[in-house]
Amino acid sequence: KKQDIIPILKGIIESFKNYATENKQTIYITHSSNQIYIDTDRDIFEKMIINLISNAIKYSKSTGDIHITVKEYKHSVSISVADSGIGIAPADIDNIFKRYYQVDRKRSVSGTGIGLAIVNEFIELHNGNVTVQSTPGKGSVFELSFPLVEDSVKSNTNIVPYALNKQEPIDPNK
Ligand code: ATP
Ligand code: MG
């Protein structure tokens, strides 16, 4: 199912409004165009994004803004969620996508360590991937990469109709 993701993302951000303003954090979204499509199930897509945003809020000790960036590449669409929170040590990076793994159980912020395992399973279902870049004490960037949906309008622009008997190519816009 082709989903127009920018309005969906804005709706999710809206739903975090109270939570984030209580924490004095602002969630920003930047996108390379207004209509960006992903082949996904809306509920599943929302669950992935909500998990990443709630982690960004939870692990940034109520300070620092959150930046969501959506970019289209030639063969993929990337959605990143960046925070300026506590960060993740290199030794933990490989483990955080495992079920029930939490870096610091004792300091335990709420949760069961399942969020990123779910994100990882869902992105695999999409034939996409998730990556993380993080610096302890500085923050983290989680990036989801989805295969690009073939947009029928875009792909048609390469097909230029041409009539052999005429002097000029047919203008495809007429
Ligand atoms: P749950 O998502 O089930 O409520 P959780 O947030 O602890 O619990 P995950 O979302 O799977 O579980 O994250 C696993 C661990 O990875 C977290 O416990 C935390 O230590 C670390 N982590 C995840 N996101 C971030 C982040 N944005 N900044 C710093 N650490 C993070
Ligand atoms: Mg979580």
From TrEMBL:
<protein>
    <recommendedName>
        <fullName>histidine kinase</fullName>
    </recommendedName>
</protein>
<feature type="domain" description="Histidine kinase">
    <location>
        <begin position="1"/>
        <end position="150"/>
    </location>
</feature>
